[in-house]
Write a structure and sequence with these properties.
Bound molecules: zinc ion
Strand order of the largest sheet: 2-1-5-6
Radius of gyration: 28 Å
Number of strands: 12
Largest sheet: 4 strands, antiparallel
Shape: flat
Structural class: mainly beta
Helix content: 10-25%
Strand content: 35-45%
Distance between the termini: 66 Å
Number of domains: 2
Length: about 250
């Protein structure tokens, strides 16, 4: 129709993603060790897609009476719990759980998706189970394990829409895909493990890979350029192994 009316159409960036704040992600990568080019000057970040994920708030009510073998009431269990679950059913904690419990991004969700019932039942069982001490008719003390059964765990699920924003970050010839708000930790491109505590990462200034500073990369022993182990030329000295970059090895 546009063509018939003489209007030319072209596909450009999705205008709805233009104002998305991605500073949480870019800030995280900007803090990585990078030499001689700073992380920010190597970074090319853009939003590639947005999608509404269905998360869940699960309101759980557990009510069960436990008796011993002679019918004596041992324990009355009465508990209420509220859980937040992610799109794949995993139980959330911290900031994300708070966000979901507060209604997420207030976006419409598909009703057809089924809530993560089994995971919630399993968690509620594990969190409610008690070993209860009681005195029997003969005056002896006994312990009964009181674990609620599925029929006594009532769950109300509320679907919650959370916006997932996929950001693509490019450093030199290496790409990173980041899903906000789900991805939490940057993983090393060499060993695949997350950053972890006390395990700083660097950006290789030859290929752009993000790797662990001590175990999967380092600095060029001569010019201090940050390099990953697959770009570094390793040279064994008598005591230690030194890494050199391509520039330093060729001017040797
Ligand atoms: Zn690593
Ligand atoms: Zn490299
Ligand atoms: Zn060098």
């Amino acid at each position: 129709m546009a063509r018939m009316a003489g209007v030319s159409l072209h596909q450009g960036e999705d205008p709805s993603t233009r104002d998305t704040d991605i500073s949480d992600v870019t800030g995280m990568f900007a803090g990585l060790k990078s030499c001689p080019a700073g992380a920010t000057s190597l970074m090319n970040a853009k939003v590639t897609s947005q999608h509404i994920d269905t998360c869940w708030v699960a309101e759980v009510r557990v009510e069960q009476r436990f008796h011993n073998s002679s019918g004596m009431l041992v324990h009355k269990m009465k508990k209420k719990k509220t859980y937040a679950c992610g799109p794949d059913g995993n139980i959330l904690d911290g900031k994300l759980a708070k966000k979901v419990k507060k209604g997420g991004d207030g976006l419409p969700v598909k009703r057809s998706e089924s809530p993560p019932r089994n995971d919630i039942i399993r968690t509620a069982k594990a969190e409610c189970v008690r070993n209860v001490k009681y005195k029997g008719g003969n005056g002896s003390t006994y312990v009964k394990r009181c674990e609620p059964t599925e029929g006594h765990i009532h769950v109300n699920f509320h679907p919650i829409g959370v916006l997932r924003t996929t950001v693509e970050l490019k450093f030199l010839r290496t790409k990173y895909k980041w899903d906000m708000p789900w991805d939490k930790e940057i993983a090393c491109k060499a060993c695949g493990k997350p950053k972890g505590v006390l395990k700083p990462l660097l950006i290789c200034n030859e290929c752009g890979r993000v790797v662990h500073v001590r175990t999967c990369g380092g600095e060029c022993g001569r010019c201090k350029k940050t390099i990953c182990d697959s770009c570094a030329v390793k040279r064994k000295k008598i005591i230690k192994t030194s890494r050199l970059c391509g520039d330093c090895i060729s001017s040797d």
